[in-house]
Specification:
Structural class: alpha/beta
CATH architecture: 3-Layer(aba) Sandwich
Largest sheet: 6 strands, mixed
Number of domains: 1
Radius of gyration: 21 Å
CATH topology: Rossmann fold
Number of strands: 6
CATH class: Alpha Beta
Strand content: 5-15%
Order of helices and strands: HHHEHEHEHHHEHEEH
Distance between the termini: 67 Å
Bound molecules: iron/sulfur cluster
């Protein structure tokens, strides 16, 4: 005898299932509390910024000042894999590092902070990377969808408080992604901004509590684009339309001749960084 499946009666005019506001608020306020272990402190085995570790990082950073990005990535993999990860927004620098990692460390877990506000062209690069390199980049997403988030705040938060929006949709997500890792690579260049000018090649990232490695710190924009051109590395087509630095679509515009590379980010606000690379 077959099993009879009882179908739930259809209810008409039911609103779409939306999580109640209360639990969403609790998730959004999930900034790591002082009692919660972050980054490498939560790893197994943990890595803590002891005097010995900090001395080692300073020594390695100095030694790698004249190294190539590939040599720096090799060091990172030898020292920290499998607890070495990379975050990418699919910018030209990130695509260059992905190209290098495809050869040096294709098993390195790479992730993208998918805020829900990225350009379609940016999201498409995830597929391009997969087909070109066989590397699957993981989207790390905030606890709420854009629709839920905007409903909670009575509209788009990026219009009124972009720091809050970046915190909720990027920083909180990176905290989560970094937990249990020992080190992460970022694709920043020192010549991009005053904040970034102070980046070490290897150093302790106090904000996220793990080692931060910046293999392209000493590279220039020209070096990045030369490699993209020489190696036919895929890149965001918006770059060819004047978008020299690409983040979320509401906070990115094309730049004009003579404007700073990052002038199109949070245009109209004092804000210059999302907070991932500031101490
Ligand atoms: Fe929000 Fe803009 Fe930050 Fe994206 S870049 S998280 S839209 S404020």
């Amino acid at each position: 005898m077959g099993v009879q499946v009882m179908k739930a009666p259809k209810t008409m005019n039911q609103p779409p299932a939306t999580p109640p506001i209360e639990p969403m608020l609790r998730v959004l306020s999930a900034e790591p509390s002082s009692g919660e272990l972050r980054g490498a402190l939560a790893a197994d085995p943990p890595l803590a910024p002891t005097d010995e570790v900090l001395a080692e990082l300073a020594r390695e950073s100095e030694r790698l000042e004249t190294a190539t990005p590939q040599e720096i990535l090799r060091y990172a993999i030898d020292r920290f894999a499998p607890r070495f990860t990379m975050a990418t927004a699919f910018g030209p620098e990130g695509m260059t590092l992905i190209h290098m990692l495809a050869e040096i460390g294709p098993k390195t877990p790479i992730f993208n902070l998918e805020t829900g506000y990225q350009f379609a062209e940016t999201l498409e690069l995830r597929e391009t990377v997969k087909s070109r390199y066989g590397i699957e980049i993981e989207f790390k997403k905030p606890a709420t969808t854009v629709e839920q988030y905007e409903a909670m705040h009575g509209g788009p938060v990026y219009k009124t408080d972009p720091n809050r929006c970046c915190f909720d949709r990027k920083l909180t997500v990176l905290h989560e992604a970094a937990r249990g890792m020992h080190a992460w690579a970022s694709a920043i260049r020192r010549d991009q901004s005053n904040d970034r000018a102070r980046a070490a090649i290897v150093g302790w990232d106090h904000k996220f509590q793990l080692v931060k490695i910046s293999p392209l710190a000493n590279w220039t924009k020209q070096q990045v684009w030369k490699m993209i051109s020489d190696e036919d590395i895929p890149y965001n087509p918006l770059q060819d339309k004047g978008y020299t630095s690409i983040g979320c679509w509401p906070c990115t515009r094309a730049v004009g001749m003579g404007e700073d590379e990052r002038a199109g980010r949070w245009s109209g606000f004092e804000k210059k960084e999302c907070g991932l690379h500031t101490s």
